[in-house]
Amino acid sequence: MEKRIYNFSAGPAILPEEVLKESQENLMALPDVGMSILEISHRSKTFDNIFHQTKEDVKTLLDIDDNYSILFLQGGASLQFSMVPMNIMPPKNKADYIVTGAWAKKAVKEAKRVGDVNIAATTEETTFNRIPKQNELKLCGDASYLHFTSNNTIYGTQYQTEPEVGDVTLVCDASSDIFHKKIDVNKYGIIYAGAQKNMGPSGVTMVIYRNDLLERSSDDLPTMLNYKTHVEKDSMFNTPNTFGIYIIGLVAKWLLNMGGLDKMYETNKHKAGILYDCIDNSNGFYKGHAEKDSRSLMNVTFNLPAEELEKKLIAEALNAGFNGLKGHRSVGGLRASIYNAFPTKGVEDLVEFMKEFQSKNS
Amino acid sequence: MEKRIYNFSAGPAILPEEVLKESQENLMALPDVGMSILEISHRSKTFDNIFHQTKEDVKTLLDIDDNYSILFLQGGASLQFSMVPMNIMPPKNKADYIVTGAWAKKAVKEAKRVGDVNIAATTEETTFNRIPKQNELKLCGDASYLHFTSNNTIYGTQYQTEPEVGDVTLVCDASSDIFHKKIDVNKYGIIYAGAQKNMGPSGVTMVIYRNDLLERSSDDLPTMLNYKTHVEKDSMFNTPNTFGIYIIGLVAKWLLNMGGLDKMYETNKHKAGILYDCIDNSNGFYKGHAEKDSRSLMNVTFNLPAEELEKKLIAEALNAGFNGLKGHRSVGGLRASIYNAFPTKGVEDLVEFMKEFQSKNS
Q1: Residue ranges of the domains in chain B?
Q2: What are A204-259's pLDDT values in tens digits?
Q3: Pick from A13, A225, A244: which is nearest to B203 by CB?
Q4: Is A197 marked active-site?
Q5: Which whole number is the average pLDDT over A15-21?
């Protein structure tokens, strides 16, 4: 087998080795089927079983009630940026958006094509280094929904708990932290997530959709952009990304086998804690980008005293088998993406490497 | 290894065994990369090489000039049903559609949301058992484009050559026969194809797009539905289906290695010929659904003298290792989908089985 290295990529990102192994073993032919998962009809009995088991396991992981549909769509979060306002901004055609990063801004851009967007809060002036506090929110008062991004990969910030918005429908882009802990889905109208960070390969988007919202969707919408199509056809109006759903199913099973999302959350807190401790105990050599109470468990962003040192660390780390540590160009510095599948050992090894680098270069 | 059976599924459908083998070998980690294709960033050097090589190989296979873009999008042909009219029906807001099946009808439905649709021809009254002849076409005269479906999986019909439409932009849904032979791409404005029949796994759509059409796309369109977005960002506005593109790349390489599309076409004609000969020489026991000059090389549809016999054959065939022969409910009977990757040996074995079945049951 090819040697595997530590993959800190922000997305598409690391998957559990057990998931890769099982899909590899069965890639020529699923057991007792004689055909590859890549070759079977989305309407076959075999795929139907995979599809329904995946939905059941997702429901179990997040304790989702039957008044929600679990959809597997295409087009990434970026297509949801349009589908959400096109479907549920009517009839009031107003929505609140909290802007905590580049993806939220893109969501706003698409929403403005449909109706009035109220920016309930933004932290852009401090390079999105924090999540707005509850008392900073300026809701417009009659919004069809409020949209927020639960985790911001580029800046390394994350909501610790949902914003409180009273009766307003809560919509969340959870692309980069879905499944990192259990959340109370009942608080939400729509949760959507591109799979490629914490759930599976790219090319499939999971949407958790509260069914009463369907009444807002006009029949005039393009069929593929209408949630009604996908809820009524159970994601099978046309051929979904069957392989992507299969992998999400394996990841869900992996999460259940390891004890579920409360257990995952404990591991994630421990894992990120190791890295943040290293940063906080470095006497300022490593400096976190995000404010402490906004820190992400998924993406740890930090800088060094000089850009030259950052380049040096990234290059030396790559040689040592730590891949993908370069920060996003809009923040600079470093970013360690340590999603669910990233092993604790990898963080421990990185911290050891960082301490050694500091002692050699300060 | 799991035993593989003969897979006649209409789509998702059989892939070349060499492609499955190579992707299986490298699923834990690409050579010299240490990470799976499922885990690497779409902006990484590794994926960038795969992506560009795939585009180059597609261009080579179909002799595509540089005034065309090769896009890899999501949402299947069904999303193209909307994107095509939203982008290129303006400014005249009229289009011609040839209706040769269920998919063409769905395309018409979405186009009607945008502007006036002229049905240039339809063969619905004979259950789409043929392709309309050139002299049957009633073009509206000032259409922005004419849309047709090159191969109709459900009915087993296929265009032998493109409809002639003068200066009108030709748009083709080639989902079920792309790459089955070389076509003259220069005759087309847009060719689109869901990958899951003749090219790869589900969840990725290839669009061959003539760049001068971009001037028709309004900036008011949702960003993800605007071809301008995808041409300008080279399919990387957001994360594409990286695994799907990788498999398409392997399939393209497989086609080039076997001698290209002229060679593939010879094989396809030979392969389908074996099955059609069996039907034509069965003294009416097997009866083709499609008229002879409209027959598809990809999907061979036929009936038996009685529905009971059809059920019996399908059941016995399944036991003998021939999977997926049941026809679509709207036509009934049987359908053998024998795309590029389907081995000639499998058709020979099926024909032997069919002859034996006939001698036992007539």
Answers
A1: 18-258, 260-361
A2: 999 999 999 999 999 999 999 999 999 999 999 999 999 999 999 999 999 999 99
A3: A244
A4: yes
A5: 97
Q: From the centroid of its chain, how far is CA A130?
A: 18
Q: Supply the angle between the helices A261-280 and A344-361 in degrees, to the nearest 10.
A: 0
A74 contact B CB<8A? yes
Q: Are A114 and A91 contacting, i.e. CB atoms less than 8 angstroms apart?
A: no
pLDDT at B352 over 80: yes
CA–CA separation, B21 and B27 (whole Å): 10
SS3 state of residue B170: strand
Cα B39 to Cα A234, A259, B27: the distances in Å are: 28, 24, 10
pTM over 0.90: yes
CATH 3.40.50.300 applies to domain B18-258: no
Contact A223 B38 (CB under 8 A): no
Which CATH topology does A260-361 take? Aspartate Aminotransferase, domain 1 (3.90.1150)
Q: How confident is the model at residue B330 (pLDDT cuts 50, 70, 90)?
A: confident
The amino acid at A237: F
Among B109, B223, B321, select the one facing A110 at the smallest CB separation: B223
CB contact under 8 Å between B41 and A204, yes or no, is no
Contact A203 B240 (CB under 8 A): yes
Measured in whole angstroms, the distance separating CA B202 from the mean position of its chain's CA atoms is: 12
User: Chain B residue closest to A45 (CA)?
Assistant: B324
Q: Is A254 labeled as catalytic in the residue annotation?
A: no
Contact B82 A4 (CB under 8 A): no
In chain B, residues with a C-beta closer than 8 Å to the C-beta of A115 are none
How far is the C-alpha of A213 from the C-alpha of B361, rounded, in Å?
Answer: 56
Q: What is the pLDDT of residues B89-124, one digit of tens each?
A: 999 999 999 999 999 999 999 999 999 999 999 999
Global ipTM:
0.98
Cα–Cα nearest to B95, from B140, B38, B39: B140
Range 139-198 of B in CB contact (< 8 A) with A: 194, 196
Residue B233 touches partner A, C-beta closer than 8 Å: no
